[in-house]
Design goal:
It contains 10 helices and 2 strands. It has 250 residues and is mainly alpha-helical. β1 (46-47) and β2 form a beta hairpin. α3 (52-83) runs antiparallel to α5 (96-122).
Length: 250
């Protein structure tokens, strides 16, 4: 696993060298969301008996985590392809599994760092309890893994930054913003409740929030099953693309 460790070190160093942009900036963005929404709605809204600010914090943590996990792997791959430096990853005897693990683990690490930063700067705005910390960890790691692997798919498929930006703006952003970060599923009309059940990010956020308050829109066991199956499916698709060399070796 020497190749895995070396590539992982390279990927972690890549985002850590510009940590002010890759970690601090997303934390500030989440803090601004909290300040605006909590100021407007905290005194008027209770969700599952939880004050709105407290309800909002886990959603912002998870949203920041998954968005940055996706950004890490996708931006790294597209940058390597455009500059031609991806050849230095493909030439050494690194298996496609090591390639996959290094990029996904680095994406998860960046997501966890951003999520932890968001939690630290927002937790003092409202009292938080940690009813089921193992659920919090499970959904955080799996959620970061899914978006990290999905970011690899986007980075492999895209040929230029414009295509990657379209992927982020028209797929990732709607999936995360319409996943229950700012509202409970039961506050939606019946039709949109049904649509939300096809959004895997909804299950990540709902299960993650359950770990804090012990309440959720969907049973956490069901959410965990959906998230685990999604991770396996996205990982299998990513590994198949790496194995085939699609848009990497040509």
């Amino acid at each position: 696993m020497t190749g895995f460790r070396t590539l992982l070190y390279k990927e972690v160093l890549r985002f850590w060298k510009v940590g002010f942009q890759t970690v601090a900036a997303p934390v500030l963005t989440a803090l601004l969301y909290l300040l605006i929404f909590s100021h407007v709605l905290d005194r008027h809204v209770l969700v599952h008996g939880v004050p709105y600010t407290a309800f909002l914090i886990p959603g912002l943590v998870m949203m920041s985590l998954v968005q940055n996990a996706f950004a890490n792997s996708s931006s790294s791959l597209i940058q390597s392809k455009i500059t031609g430096s991806v050849v230095f990853v493909l030439l050494p005897p690194i298996s496609y599994l090591e390639f996959f693990l290094a990029y996904v683990v680095a994406a998860v690490l960046r997501g966890l760092m951003v999520g932890a930063g968001v939690l630290l700067v927002t937790a003092w705005f409202a009292p938080l309890s940690f009813v089921a910390p193992l659920w919090i960890i499970a959904f955080a790691v799996l959620g970061g893994g899914i978006l990290g692997a999905f970011g690899m798919i986007a980075g492999i498929w895209a040929d230029k930054f414009d295509q990657l930006a379209g992927f982020q703006n028209f797929l990732i952003l709607p999936l995360t913003m319409l996943s229950g970060v700012f509202y409970s599923l039961h506050s939606l009309p019946a039709f949109w409740q049904g649509v939300s059940h096809f959004n895997p990010v909804f299950y990540m956020i709902d299960g993650f929030r359950y770990g804090f308050f012990g309440v959720s829109d969907v049973a956490p066991e069901s959410s965990l099953a959906v998230v685990a199956i999604s991770f396996l499916a996205v990982s299998a698709a990513t590994l198949a693309m790496l194995r085939s060399g699609y848009k990497l070796r040509s």
